[in-house]
Design a protein that fits this description.
mainly beta, Immunoglobulin-like, 6 helices, 371 residues, five-stranded antiparallel β-sheet, binds ligand MTE, 37% strand
């Protein structure tokens, strides 16, 4: 069971029981069932994209992973308002129509949860349309000395047992908040933003792990000090073991990563030609190469990228394989980016936390005895 990120009060569903009941329901040629999300918690809602169902560059609505800390707030577009306050010259309050009038920009962005497992389904890609955050910040006029911009959601709950309820919030350094690609999105894949993805408005912070893409956005605050809220100081922090204690660093930029969609773990395949498929991404950087090994990592060969790697968005890749040898095979993948980063073969043994899990993805499949 993979409960990605660290939901505190999750009521977990037994994933195997869920899959078994799906298998009993499903018959061959019923792809709609296979393509639904895989739940791992009901309260709060946590559901994975079924990575084996990867078909194209955009993840359809209903398949895109969901990761909530608390219950989904009920927001009504008519009453909804967005406030911009804190260290600004002109505080703003916008209604939905006013926000949309600020103009729009559309960008394809892969969101990945910072705790997405190797080969996991807490990653998906969509076309997001919205207003660059920069426009509102410029209109409000940031005062000198602003250190970060806090994004506050309308959802609230107990993040740490025994402590008071808190709103979900994250802060961005000013440079990332003012980057022209950091969006306040009100559309996903050309349609209204679905409720579970932040209706009516969410942040989309391209190239950064998805906890910064705050959903159900209601308040933007410019701060002249470091943000010390629990989501900045006690969550999404990497911890490295050191000979003298440990070192803590905030997590933000996504690391280069690739995953295999096909074959899936345990798949039984025919002898002969088979296309291995998957996706690779590198956050703010570009994927330049994906390599596949079909012999336990002894030899690596380049996979074919379906388009040129671009910042923010995953690229689909494929690798034609032909095997005559029946039995068990390990298929492995690793990606490289344009900044000289590559996926490591294993986890850094000094890491004590559960984030940035980007080591080589390996899948074991079986080739049948006879065709
Ligand atoms: N925003 C709010 N308001 N509340 C949340 O719980 N979860 C964050 C982020 N934004 C969250 C949030 C986390 S941890 C992730 S991984 C992404 O939303 C998931 O976005 P998605 O559910 O649209 O896939």
């Amino acid at each position: 069971m993979n409960q990605f990120c660290n939901g505190q009060n999750a009521k977990l569903i037994d994933r195997r029981a869920f899959c078994t009941s799906l298998a009993m329901l499903s018959v061959w040629h019923q792809p709609a069932l296979r393509a639904s999300r895989i739940p791992s918690s009901v309260h709060p809602q946590i559901e994975e994209f079924d990575f084996a169902a990867l078909r194209g560059p955009e993840t359809p609505r209903g398949e895109f992973f969901v990761r909530n800390h608390f219950a989904v707030p009920s927001l009504n577009q008519r009453n909804w308002r967005l406030k911009v306050t804190g260290c600004v010259k002109i505080p703003l309050e916008l209604d939905f129509a006013g926000l949309v009038r600020e103009g729009s920009k559309t960008i394809s962005v892969t969101l990945e949860c910072a705790g997405n497992a190797v080969g996991g389904g807490a990653v998906s890609t969509a076309r997001w349309t919205g207003v660059p955050l920069e426009r509102l910040l410029k209109r409000a006029g940031l005062c000198s000395g602003v250190k970060c911009v806090r994004l506050v959601g309308a959802d609230r709950g107990v993040e740490d047992l025994g402590r008071a309820p808190v709103f979900y919030m994250r802060s961005l350094p000013v440079e990332k908040a003012l980057h022209p690609d950091t969006l306040l999105a009100y559309q996903m894949n050309g349609d209204q933003l679905p409720v579970e993805h932040g209706f009516p408005l969410r942040a989309v912070v391209p190239g950064w792990y998805a906890m910064d893409s705050v959903k159900w956005l209601v308040h933007i605050q410019a701060l002249d000090h470091e943000d010390k809220n629990i989501f900045m100081t006690e969550r999404y922090i990497s911890t490295q073991w050191r000979s003298l204690g440990s070192e803590r660093q905030p997590i933000n930029k996504m690391r280069v990563k690739s995953q295999i969609a096909r074959p899936h773990e345990g798949e039984l395949i025919e002898r002969g030609p088979y296309i291995i498929r998957g996706a690779a991404w590198a956050g703010e950087n570009r994927v330049t190469q994906v390599q596949v090994s079909v012999d336990e990592g002894k030899e690596w060969r380049p996979a074919e990228l379906e388009e040129e790697g671009r910042a923010y968005k995953w690229v689909l890749w494929k690798y034609p394989w032909s095997t005559q040898r029946p039995g068990s095979h390990a298929v492995m993948v690793r990606a490289f980016d344009d900044r000289g980063n590559e996926q490591p073969l294993s986890r850094d043994s000094h890491r004590l936390d559960g984030y940035e899990l980007n080591w080589v993805h390996s899948v074991r499949c079986r080739v049948k005895q006879s065709p």
